[in-house]
From TrEMBL, chain B:
<dbReference type="GO" id="GO:0005851">
    <property type="term" value="C:eukaryotic translation initiation factor 2B complex"/>
</dbReference>
<comment type="function">
    <text>Acts as a component of the translation initiation factor 2B (eIF2B) complex, which catalyzes the exchange of GDP for GTP on eukaryotic initiation factor 2 (eIF2) gamma subunit. Its guanine nucleotide exchange factor activity is repressed when bound to eIF2 complex phosphorylated on the alpha subunit, thereby limiting the amount of methionyl-initiator methionine tRNA available to the ribosome and consequently global translation is repressed.</text>
</comment>
<comment type="subunit">
    <text>Component of the translation initiation factor 2B (eIF2B) complex which is a heterodecamer of two sets of five different subunits: alpha, beta, gamma, delta and epsilon. Subunits alpha, beta and delta comprise a regulatory subcomplex and subunits epsilon and gamma comprise a catalytic subcomplex. Within the complex, the hexameric regulatory complex resides at the center, with the two heterodimeric catalytic subcomplexes bound on opposite sides.</text>
</comment>
<dbReference type="InterPro" id="IPR037171">
    <property type="entry name" value="NagB/RpiA_transferase-like"/>
</dbReference>
<dbReference type="InterPro" id="IPR042529">
    <property type="entry name" value="IF_2B-like_C"/>
</dbReference>
<protein>
    <recommendedName>
        <fullName>Translation initiation factor eIF2B subunit beta</fullName>
    </recommendedName>
</protein>
<dbReference type="GO" id="GO:0003743">
    <property type="term" value="F:translation initiation factor activity"/>
</dbReference>
<keyword id="KW-0648">Protein biosynthesis</keyword>
<dbReference type="GO" id="GO:0005085">
    <property type="term" value="F:guanyl-nucleotide exchange factor activity"/>
</dbReference>
<dbReference type="InterPro" id="IPR051855">
    <property type="entry name" value="eIF2B_beta_subunit"/>
</dbReference>
<dbReference type="GO" id="GO:0048513">
    <property type="term" value="P:animal organ development"/>
</dbReference>
<dbReference type="GO" id="GO:0005829">
    <property type="term" value="C:cytosol"/>
</dbReference>
<dbReference type="InterPro" id="IPR000649">
    <property type="entry name" value="IF-2B-related"/>
</dbReference>
<comment type="similarity">
    <text>Belongs to the eIF-2B alpha/beta/delta subunits family.</text>
</comment>
<keyword id="KW-0963">Cytoplasm</keyword>
<dbReference type="Pfam" id="PF01008">
    <property type="entry name" value="IF-2B"/>
</dbReference>
<keyword id="KW-0396">Initiation factor</keyword>
């Protein structure tokens, strides 16, 4: 009995991974199809799916605990993939398409909050019935798009509570176990936490930069594309940093993956490629938690892939995807930066003293454009330990010939009386109007408010995020704590901090700025107040 | 008595002290705490009183004022020197008045009535000679020295009144007073301390290691994270370099940001400052308020290519206005910032505010 269950589990897992059943009954059909033509016809596929569903229904009735667990895992997997995916595929996998299209950005496979098995089964059954009914009524339509739009329309009104991403549940051992199992299945090594974590942040990961994930990989890695391995290493060592840079690097790596991809026989490009990308994304997530912009980019890529019509030839499909990715980069990042620069330059007048913090590619671009339009201004660059990113911004601005002043963040209340405007970059804009950005941004906004200096945040719309957050604790990133150690006058006080049990070092990466500190947000859609972010998100979703 | 020898010995001591002050302030010499400076100043003033040649209180005051001006000019940011000089001048006035037999109160209060009728204190010129004046003054200075030695203990004794268990306390940089305060409380209560490291000097690191050695759970954060963690902090306890006459502070840079963040979250800000840090200066003097050190701490010489084209500032102090402060804890108890002006009038004579 146990062996049978295990076999069934492995079969379901395989089905979940490959998206195509390997059941013995189907093999005959597939052989026939292969002999007849390159790809299965539509009717064949629908029949296959129906038969699979019948199979699974009978298995479900056995109410096996193991199946439930693996079912939960596959659900977790497919939910990450699924938001724009055709509901047909997900029902074929026995898991319902997670309903909301603007699903949680964290593309990290989400884990369902613990519910009773009976509830889960009932929910799934109900959703399957609904989708089957809708599908049958739409048999004539160009399948995937219709179903997707219907489910989208149905679910836009009521969005269920989002599942919690894994990376903020480190203190929950069940979640960790599931993550370990999933990574094992995808053959990606698990990265271990490092050092003593401050108790307030025990729910977050804390990694050491000296132990990158790639050390645990075999070379050459057969599971992960080398471009992705290189990218992961660049992320974890901080070589590629900044949300725009990370997104662009990610998209370029995906382009490389698509170029090198060949559809295996009996597979459909739209499904298989998405499944190929899943372990890559887990790997990148282990190297460094994904940013909101990266999450949105990944969602877009997956949607484009799954929208490839099945009769498309492989070469044409790949060309199309490459074109889509290039369009995304051009439109959402490069042209958006141009539009934002044009609007911002109206806000810069001659004689201004502008304060910037850290190194934001967008803000640097704006200042360089303003210089070219012959505005006279000078810049004060504020920097903070331990990242000292402001030095990079300083170099870029000085090379262009902008006159700059440089201070550390503790001197900001000394220098603020001279300042006329503050320009800040953002990592993400949350749905409740809070600005998530590099740690220290909220402090600058606070002091600027106390001195009555206007604060302008520049952010492209692809960084808008559906999450809400009110403080910097619940969701954040902990960087390597050893970065805080410094040697001064020949003394390194914190060198042996690990040996002093009550001593902890905290190296936060992000913080959230409340909307009352921010006067204006400049996006490519115009200049909006902080509180209009959910409006923009809604408009974007309707467009898509 | 070998007069000339004593005199040269005295001038040598004074010169040595002055050069120490000059070196200590630039950050290159050994960093000494304000308490040490205060004690050394007072000891030096006692020596001057004992060994210099003077016949009346006025002469002594002149000598002390002259030396005092030289000392404050050596290191203007070290205000404890000036404070001690003013304390000693007040002591001399008191002793003189006592010797004369008149009550102190009437002499020193500038009431409107006195201003109109008698033309003020300018009549008093301290020319009378009193034999026991020298001994009295030296005795009073000794009392002052004892008071100075006990300040840190007096402040730490009040720790348990202000810290309860399971609190999260935030502090910035390194203050010996606050360290003693927290260690005293840690003997009986368990709490958590977050130390902001205060770049570029990073004195917070030393503070954190000292506190963790005393068994207190400590966390070191970067300056940039002060606002981010402030929502979980129950109290902010800081030290300061000087307490100004209006109740404001001249504290290490980054303190103003800390105070603003505490005000935003309605967290009480407690300043542990002994009385010798109270100075009759106001924060209006723009050019003397700030002190700057070498900017290579901020932008090192390794960034040579851009160094010449960039202005780099490295201020040492920050002004914190009195509205952001909740409580002062000093060796004579706790006070609100609005009470500071009254304490000042007890410590210093108004005519000594300008040395």
């Amino acid at each position: 009995m146990l062996l049978q269950q295990q076999r069934k589990r492995s079969r379901i897992v395989k089905m979940a991974d490959s998206g195509v059943t390997d059941g013995n009954e189907k093999k005959g059909d597939i052989e026939r199809a292969k002999n007849e033509g390159k790809e299965l016809t539509k009717e064949e596929k629908q029949r296959l799916r129906k038969e699979k569903k019948q199979q699974k229904k009978s298995k479900e009735k056995k109410d096996d605990k193991a199946i439930q667990e693996s079912g939960k895992e596959t659900k977790g997997d497919s939910s990450a993939v699924s938001a724009p995916q055709p509901s047909t595929q997900s029902t074929a996998q026995k898991v319902p398409a997670p309903v909301s299209v603007p699903a949680p950005e964290a593309p990290t496979p989400a884990e369902k909050p613990p519910k009773s098995k009976a509830e889960l089964k009932a929910e799934r059954r109900a959703r399957q019935e609904a989708e089957r009914a809708s599908k049958q009524s739409k048999k004539g339509d160009p399948g995937p798009q219709g179903a997707v739009s219907k489910s989208k329309a149905a679910t836009n009104e009521l969005q269920p509570v989002k599942r919690l991403p894994e990376h903020i549940q480190v203190d929950n051992p069940d979640v960790l176990k599931k993550l370990a199992k999933k990574l094992e299945r995808q053959q990606i090594p698990l990265r271990l936490d490092y050092g003593y974590k401050v108790s307030l942040f025990s729910h977050l990961h804390q990694y050491s930069r000296k132990a990158p994930l790639t050390q645990q990989l075999s070379i050459p890695s057969t599971v992960i594309h080398p471009a992705i391995v290189r990218l992961g290493l660049q992320y974890s060592q901080g070589i590629v940093a900044g949300s725009n840079a990370r997104s662009i690097a990610l998209l370029h790596a995906f382009k490389q993956v698509i170029r090198d991809y060949t559809t295996p026989p009996n597979e459909e490009l739209s499904r298989d490629l998405v499944n190929r990308l899943k372990p890559y994304i887990s790997f990148l997530n282990q190297c460094r938690p994904l940013s909101a912009s990266m999450g949105n980019a990944i969602k877009y890529v997956k949607k484009e892939i799954s929208n490839i019509p099945s009769q498309c030839k492989e070469e044409e499909a790949k060309r199309k995807l490459l074109f889509c990715i290039e369009w995304y980069i051009k439109e959402k990042i490069i042209l958006a930066a141009k539009a934002i620069a044009e609007s911002s330059i109206e806000k810069i007048s001659d004689g201004d003293v502008i304060l910037i913090y850290g190194c934001s590619s967008l803000v640097n671009h704006i200042l360089c454009e303003a210089l070219e339009k012959n505005r006279k201004f000078r810049v004060i660059v504020v920097d903070s330990r331990p990242r000292l990113e402001g030095r990079e911004a300083l170099r870029r601005l000085v090379q262009r010939g902008i006159s700059c002043t440089y201070v550390l963040i503790s001197a900001v209340s000394y220098i603020l009386p001279e300042v006329s405007k503050v320009f800040l970059g953002a990592h993400a804009l949350l749905a409740n109007g809070y600005v998530m950005s590099r740690v220290g941004t909220s402090q600058i906004a606070l002091v600027a408010k106390a001195f009555n200096v206007p604060v302008l945040v520049c952010c492209e719309t692809y960084k808008f995020c559906e999450r809400v957050q009110t403080d910097s604790f619940v969701s954040n990133e902990l960087d390597d704590p050893d970065d805080l150690i410094v040697t001064r006058n020949g003394q390194t006080h914190l060198e042996h901090w690990q040996q002093e049990p009550p001593l902890g070092l905290l190296n936060l990466v992000y913080d959230v700025t409340p909307p009352d500190f921010v006067d204006l947000v400049i996006t490519e859609l115009g200049m909006i107040p902080c509180t209009s972010v959910p409006v923009v998100l809604r408009v974007k979703n309707v467009d898509q | 008595m070998p007069g000339p020898d004593k005199e040269t010995d005295l001038t040598e001591r004074v010169e040595a002290f002055l050069s120490d002050l000059k070196r200590g302030g630039s950050g290159a010499g050994p960093l000494r705490g304000s308490a040490e400076t205060a004690r050394e100043t007072t000891a030096l003033l006692r020596k001057i009183t004992a060994q210099a040649r003077w016949s009346s209180a006025g002469d002594l005051m002149e000598i002390i004022r002259k030396e005092g001006r030289r000392m404050t000019a050596a290191q203007p940011s070290e205000t404890t020197v000036g404070n001690m000089i003013r304390r000693v001048l007040k002591i001399i006035r008191e002793e003189y008045a006592r010797s004369r037999g008149s009550s102190e109160e009437a002499d020193q209060q500038e009431s409107l009535h006195k201003l109109l009728t008698s033309g003020g204190l300018s009549e008093e010129n301290f020319r009378q000679h009193f034999a026991p004046l020298k001994a009295n003054v030296i005795e009073a200075i000794n009392e002052l020295l004892t008071e100075l030695e006990g300040t840190t203990d007096n402040i730490s004794m009040q720790a348990l009144e202000h810290i309860h268990s399971n609190e999260v306390i935030m502090t910035i940089g390194r203050s010996r007073t606050v360290e003693a305060f927290l260690r005293d409380a840690a003997r009986k209560r368990k709490f958590h301390v977050i130390v902001a490291e205060c770049a570029p000097f990073c004195q917070g690191h030393e503070m954190a290691t000292n506190l963790s050695k005393a068994g207190i759970e400590t966390t070191v954060i970067a300056d940039a994270a002060i606002f981010a963690v402030m929502s979980r902090v129950n109290k902010v306890i800081i030290g300061t370099q000087t307490v100004l006459a209006n109740g404001g502070l001249r504290a290490v840079n980054g303190t103003h940001t800390l105070a603003l963040a505490a005000k935003h979250h309605s967290t009480p800000l407690i300043v542990c400052a002994p009385m010798f840090k109270l100075s009759p200066q106001f924060p209006n003097e723009e050019d003397t308020f700030h002190k700057f050190v070498s900017p290579h701490e901020v932008l090192p010489f390794t960034e040579g290519e851009i160094l010449s084209k960039v202005n780099v500032h490295c201020p040492v102090f920050d002004y914190v206005p009195p509205e952001l402060i909740t409580l002062f804890i000093s060796n004579i108890g706790g006070h609100a910032p609005s009470y500071i002006y009254r304490l000042m009038s007890e410590l210093y004579h108004p005519e000594d505010h300008e040395l």
